[in-house]
Amino acid sequence: MRRLWELQAEKIEMVLASHNITARVRGGVITPRFIRYQLYPEVGTRLNRIRDLAEEIALFLGVQNCRIYRLKGVINVEIPRSSSKPVSLLHLCARLAEVPSCTPVLGLDEEGVPLLLSLSSPDVAHVLIAGTTGSGKTELARTMIASLAMYNHQSRLQLVLIDPKRRGFGIFGGLPHLLAPVITDVEEALSLLRRLVKEMERRDREGIGEPHIVIFIDELESLIKLGS
Hints:
Elements: H1 2-17, E1 23-30, E2 34-41, H2 47-51, H3 54-61, E3 67-71, E4 74-80, H4 89-94, E5 105-108, E6 114-116, H5 137-151, E7 157-162, H6 186-206, E8 212-217, H7 221-227
Parallel strand pairs: 7-8
Antiparallel strand pairs: 1-2, 2-4, 3-4, 5-6
Helix pairs in contact: 1-3, 6-7
């Protein structure tokens, strides 16, 4: 990949030079889905001149498209990888020296850096995973559940999994962190949520912080329709 990156960086510079634009690629990042080049043009070069060459650069590099944009004072040239690789949770976790308590691993950000979410942060009350059908919402929720179970002992973290359509969380049926078996009945889910609200109020009054209880709901609209 390093050799490919260097070769394509040279090609980008060649395309720009053919249009009398002097610029050098001096850094970038390789992620599972795209390759980004940081471009430093000669002082006075208009960004629009470089943007207008996006299709020509893509053609010269042999890729479907090329995205050129400015970010934090640097011009970025971004191209998709020929074969996107999925991000393995175990491989990703191997890169992490430490994961804080009650913090699921989400994946990689645009810079290829591991992305985590601290659920115990006062700025995080609820997390809504939104997207079109097939975009990976359930997979992200599964990743969060698996990583929470990996890095938190069951004495400090308990999980509630609500799966009305029975297609999201069944694989976690034997997880020791479960406060109750995976719930598929909507009425049962509503009843448990009401009990958890009372438990939350009691803990708040008594100043009890642990064990943390994290609730995952797949297909939230099923509960909303019945609860309303």
